[in-house]
User: Fold this.
Amino acid sequence: MSFANKTIIVTGASSGIGAATAKRFLSLGAKVLLVARNKEKMEEMFGSYNANQYRIYPFDLTALDQINTFVSDIIREEGPIDIVFNNAGISQFGYFEDSDLSVLNKIMKLDYFSVVTFTKAILSHMIEKQSGHIVTNTSVAGLIGSRNRTAYSSAKFALHGFFDSLRSEVAKHNIHITLIAPGLVQTNIGKNALTKSGHTYGKNDRGHANGLSAEAAAKQIVSAVKRKKREVIVAKWNDIAWLGIVLRKYFPWLYFELAKRIKA
Assistant:
């Protein structure tokens, strides 16, 4: 696949993996439609790029009832959409027993329901043109659960179930589904995570600073999209995520014993 002349929507494009992946697509000749709440941040992030190659669409994805109109407006203004990268999301730290249920609702609204709603809004367009590629950032937390991450993992596990099912439904329309499961990546996702009370965690002490760079992650993501991979784990070789995935699959008894002790 060549990305030249492809039109790609990237959500959560103002920072981290979203911004790095959008830049990678731009460098390969794609037209990128940037979606995030912070317009000024996107303008600053992409100011050095050819203004004819990207468009900025400020939008709050938690406004679920407005997503369909938002996507329709983009298609009307930009024409056919080839690829969507559902990347926007927020993490969480806190034991379920101590957490307010409003935190779970916030996580599910952005990390799960906004993605499903956005996918629903774009799907009829892709079915009509009989082609498309839906890429979604699901996190390793969507493959293995760990204590302190109940709300986040539940949303990410739900995405895996949704897209694994959707993949089998839309294959006949030449629509591809790729799930991206990052481990530790050098972004502010840990710092911006919600606590048990719904406040911002505010510290970068969860190992992300030692993770894969956002640029290296973007390179792996774009490669997975190019190869139409069904699922790819994006992490350093020594990321504990790999150990968790292997143990969960082949030695579940050991995984669940360790999961009681390790706080992700």
In short: The longest strand covers residues 175-182.
